[in-house]
Amino acid sequence: MCGIVGYIGKKQALPILLQGLRDLEYRGYDSAGIAVLDNGKIDRVREVGKVDMLAKKIGQVKIAGTLGIAHTRWATHGGVTEFNAHPHIVGSGKLALVHNGIIENYREIKKQLKNQKQESETDSEILGQLIFENYEGDLVKAVKKSLLKVRGTYGIVVMHADHPNQLVAARLGSPLAIGIAEGEYYIASDVTPMLPFTKQVTFLDDGEIANINGDGLKIQNMRDEIINKTITHIDWDQQKAQKGGFENFMIKEIFDQPTVFEDAIRGRFNMEEGTAVLGGLNMTLEQMRDIKRVIFVAEGTARYTGLIGKYAFERLADLPCDVDFSSEFRYRDPAVNKHTLVFVISQSGETADTLMATREAKRKGAVVRGIVNVIGSTIARETKAGTYIHAGPELSVASTKAYTNMVAVLLLYALQFGRIKHTSLATGKRLLQALLEIPEKMNEILKQDAAIKKIAESYKDYKSILYIGRGVNYPVALEGTMKLKETSYIHAEGFAGGELKHGPLALVSKDVPVVAILSKDQLYEKMKSSIQEVRARGARTLVIATVGDEEAKEVADDIIYVPDTMELLEPLLNTIPLQLFAYHIAVALGRDVDRPRNLAKSVTVE
Ligand code: F6R
């Protein structure tokens, strides 16, 4: 939530900051602003709305300077107004600050300030004022002294008019990466804005302050100890973070799936032994055999992949599994111990609840492994062991390619555990072979895009749509509703097919269509009966069926065929038509699919 950019170097800062904000806009897009320091004076422009509005406002205004900070906001404290937008400038134009996070004790801090007049209603401006009042010629000292008083979370970047060659950044709970190039530095909430300029990146950890000035970059902690950070080489290429000719990121990322899926599985097979080899598991066979229970902890779409993981682990590895919301797990007293394997799953690797759940699981002695997309993100670093899903930058708020790659990695983990317990060589080989065939099968579904669009458009005026699935396709139904809700704002609910007649059937009418996933599995007949039941109550049905299943037409008003695969792998295919269905409805309704209202990509606040 909220994107921060900072630049210090030889180039003009303005274009770098503006492009950086565009790259980070998925993190928040209700207002944006930039501040650039030149000749001892800070120039600032802020605007309500998206970065394009800010760029328009800046227009031909000449903002020169090679040092600057910028921010795209997702409001927490204070409404969406220009006054509340960052950067905040305090001290009669002397100090500018951008902040991502929440200062919980801002009221107490405000009471202690000499200057009681603030321009905005934000906690961030109070922090800026505190830093200014603590300033006695040393910006790092002022930042440190102020942060020691703060309760809450922050990623901040600060500049001061009297320090024309200095940026100070600090972090507690909100991510900040620093890109290092020849004589210049880039700061941002994630690495995307710096990719065109450098691949050498270091990540601030909680409690660290970065001081960038003419002498280079120095990172210290709150006890003034200098920290020697490791530099990570980010091998994402910048093109992957662009739309590549597509209308928007969501459709581009849906179409990315066959390619990035290959990245998720590449080098992670041992075909001869019918098993997966995920180095990040980092456990001996003995340690693996010592695991008695698995818990998948995540939020939203990532949690749905955990539900799929549960089916896979129970089936292949014969291990009892639970799936939990990170936000619940962290506040319960989760019964975990050294025999519990906790998978924390997160695209961004920054979701606050999932990060806190990670720490809780570690504190309680569980074996914790991350399944994360963003390289160098906090959860990836804090779990130390675990696996990157290699989906590349996912910029649309609605997660698509990260979902499929999470499922791929979970299946591989399940197989790796399965093969030392319960799963035969033949099944292992069959599963690996089936995974290899997935990209081609995904392409076959994507080729039906035009037909799916036509179907989707005919559903756009419904006010509510129900989704049903069974077994491993129950989470697929849930994921279908998530994509529809967040991109089109149409109400949707997902149910396990067998649950319908225990209540939800009362919702069904001719005005409430039902999307049903009809897999050719052991529950085929039962699922068909459920679809018949909703049809008998007047519901229009869209059925996702397996190629060759002519009988499915008997219960379908509309039908989308997907290629056959092994049952456990079906979510990898069956979700794609549901992504396209939601996408085309949203576009037909004129929604901003990449940036749905009220949402942000990376939820770094509770
Ligand atoms: C939905 C979506 C969210 C995320 C959730 C967790 O399309 O993207 O539900 O899945 O906010 O985010 P990560 O995976 O970054 O922890």
Write the layout of secondary structure elements.
Layout (H helix, E strand, L loop, with lengths): L2 E6 L4 H12 L6 E8 L2 E8 L2 H8 L8 E7 L14 E3 L4 E6 L5 H7 L10 H12 L4 H9 L6 E7 L6 E6 L4 E5 L2 E5 L11 E4 L4 E6 L2 E6 L10 E2 L15 H17 L3 E2 L4 E2 L8 H5 L3 E6 L1 H18 L3 E5 H4 L10 E7 L5 H12 L3 E6 L5 H6 L2 E3 L12 H18 L6 H22 L2 H9 L6 E6 L3 H16 L2 E6 L17 E5 L5 H13 L4 E6 L11 E5 L7 H19 L18
Parallel strand pairs: 17-18, 17-19, 19-20, 20-21, 22-23, 22-24, 24-25, 25-26
Antiparallel strand pairs: 1-4, 1-10, 2-3, 2-4, 5-6, 6-7, 7-8, 8-12, 9-10, 9-11, 11-14, 12-13, 15-16
Helix pairs in contact: 3-4, 4-5, 6-12, 6-13, 8-12, 8-15, 13-17, 14-17, 15-17
Bound molecules: fructose -6-phosphate.
The site of fructose -6-phosphate has 15 residues, from helix 8 and helix 15.
Tell me the domain tally: 3
| Rg, alpha carbons | 25 Å
Bound molecules: fructose -6-phosphate
Q: Which structural class do you get from the secondary structure elements? A: alpha/beta
- Give a quick account of the main beta sheet: strands, pairing sense, barrel closure: 8 strands, antiparallel
Unreliable spans: none
Tally the beta strands: 26
What topology, given as strand order, has the largest sheet? Answer: 3-2-4-1-10-9-11-14
CATH architecture label of the largest domain: 4-Layer Sandwich
Distance between the termini: 10 Å
Superfamily at the CATH H level of the largest domain?
Answer: Aminohydrolase, N-terminal nucleophile (Ntn) domain
Work out the helicity level: 25-40%
Tell me the fraction of residues in β-strands, as a range: 15-25%
Mean pLDDT across every amino acid position: 94
Q: Given the structure, what is the number of helices?
A: 17
CATH topology grouping of the largest domain: Glutamine Phosphoribosylpyrophosphate, subunit 1, domain 1
- CATH class descriptor name of the largest domain: Alpha Beta
Shape: globular
